[in-house]
Structures are given as C-alpha cells and as structure tokens.
Amino acid sequence: MLSAQARPYIDASVPVLREHGLTITRTFYRNMFAAHPELTQIFNMGNQANGSQQQSLASAVFAYAANIDNAEALGPVVSRIVHKHVSVGITADHYPIVGHHLLGAIQEVLGEAATPPLLAAWEEAYGLLADALIAAEKALYAAHHTTPGEFYEFQVTQIQPEGTEVKAYSLMPVGNTPHWAFHPGQYVSVAVTLDNGQRQLRQYSLSDAPGASGLRISVKREPNRGDTPAGQVSNWIHEQVQVGSVLLLSPPCGDFSPAVGRDPVVLLSAGIGITPMVSALNHIAQTQPERYVQFAHAALNSDHHAHQADIAAAQARMPHLQVVTFYEEPTVADLAAGIYSGRMEITKLPSWAYHEAAVYLCGPIGFMQSQWQQLLALGVPAHLLHREVFGPELLDHLL
Questions:
Q1: Mean pLDDT of 353-357
Q2: Choice among 9, 29, 64, 137 that is catalytic
C-alpha cells in the first residue's frame, strides 16, 4: 500500500502526466535503449517506430497514478501486462533498469518541478507495481514450467494460404519441446532474427482449437501504409518461412478466453482479428456443438476473408451457429452469396439474449470501438463485453 507521505505527490502527478506523459515515455525509451541496446531484442521496435508503444506506456503510467487505490479497475490491466511480459521473457532483473530510466525521464522532462519528494513518491509507487508484476509473472512462469526468456523449437509442417494477405502455419514441437495445453484466444510470441541480424518478437494468436498435437498461427502480411511502416516480422515470415523451417515460440499466454463457459456467446471480429475467434469456434464445435454461437466477421471482401473453411466446417457440426458476414468492398459473387455490403452493423445481426450472452470483439481499434458503442446502445451490459487489445485503448475505462 502506498504510504501517506507519497500519496499527495502521486495524486498531484495526474494532471502533470496527462500533459507531459508522452514526452516522458519518449525520453524514457530513448535513454533506456541508448544505455541497454540489448533490450531492443525484447521490445517491439515496429511499435517504437509508429509511436504506439510510447503512447501505451504513457497511458499506463497515467492510469496507474489515477487509479492507484482502485485494485478492481487495475486488475484486468495488470493481468494483460503480466501475460505479455511472460510471452516475451521479462525477468525481475529488468525492473530496476526500467525504474531507473523512468524516474530519470520524469526528472529530465519536468525539471525543477520533479522535486525530491515527488521522485521519492514515484520510486515507491513504481516499486509496489514492480513487486506485484514480478510475483504474478513468477507464478505464470511456474505454471508453464518454463524459465523466463526460454523459447521452444517448432517445425512448420504445413502452410495454408487464407486469402490474399494471410497464411496459416501448422507447427509441430521439435525434440523435447513440450506439448502445451492452451485456452482458445491465447497467443504465442514468435522470435525471429531478421536479415539485418536484429532479433525481434511478435505475438500471434493461436488459430485452431487446443487438443491437437501441434499448434497453428495465422500471420497477416503488413505492407507499408502511409506513415505506418511495413511489418518487419510478418513480412519476414511470409517471405522466408517454408515447410520444414523451425520457428522459436514462447509458451501460450493471454487472458482473452471467448470459449469459456456454456452460455450463449457472440464472437465479433474484423480482419486478422478472426484468428482467436476461429480458435474459439473450432473448440466449441468439438466440445459443445449444441451451444448457441453467433459468429460475425467483417472483411474487405471474400479475397481477404481468412479461415472460411473453418467456419464452414463448424456450420456443418453446430445446428445453433449463426454466421453473419460483412464485406466493405464486396465482389459481385459476394453479393450473390447474401453477404452484407459495408461495415458491420450490430442491428443487422440476429437478436440474442442481450443480458445473458457474453460478447467478444477482436479487430482494428476503430472496429472494436464502433461495435462497443453499438452494443451498449442496444442494451448489452458493459460487463458482458470483452475485447482483445494491448495498447492505449486497453485503458479506456481508466483514463
């Protein structure tokens, strides 16, 4: 618990962090990477380039300060961070490095306003958060029976094109690599060494049901789009990985679990956000085929719609599965097949028991925000809404 001496300084920091948080986090990352270039092998340098990682940390620091006594609100955020940290191999030794450079960035940006009592308060607050994260991460590492930073070899046994932008990679463990149980909706980190020698980690949702002898991930090629650079790792995987290649994977992580329970469930996705939903759908088809499931997906058109075969197979097994599809730029054949034209609209879905069914969303941020607002307007309670996101938007309810 934060001390009475530190609390006023943390409370007073809230408006300051709202104004200067992004500058502080940019300064933090710049200084930390200059002192510890080895950490660029853990952090997503693509997100560094587009600024999303700096914004995520700024939002997290501000949310922590504003909700430091609200454990219930911070809990889901801490859980999401713990899973992400375990997936990339964060250890207890990293926390003093981060703390040192975070406090240094606060002092550098705020100047004389960063008084010794304020810095001492933030050192105390950071220490409390670090201790909580370290303990939770230690428990998750133990549950996986793995050591921090350990990655395991999986061989590619099949590559299946899923539309024009996505490839699904079937993977089998090599040697003593363990067979992992996982929950539908979880992801793995994939470690690759790029052509320039830089090691990078990226997270990919597992796109098939648990229980098989191997794993499957689905990777979307990310081209350069204006100010957004091309996806280094996704493009490398598309261009370099072949059947027989060996990839290094973390144990499955993530607390997004759309297949949990036996009640009706609604799965809403767009683009590559379909991957955790297909994992959930395949799992339900295998274990609860009589369950009521509504599965709605939005894509550009059928050429960009991944995992259509999985959906068709689930439809053949699940009498109460409702599938609704939206294409923003449908082809003539798409329209003839009864596909909705345009972006997803909740009012076009079959009605369901709004106060009973959990609703899960995964896709671009704009898509999830739009569906979230439509669902609330329709009367779906907020506690039944869940989304797969790791970024500033994760903290919307705290800011």
A1: 94
A2: 137
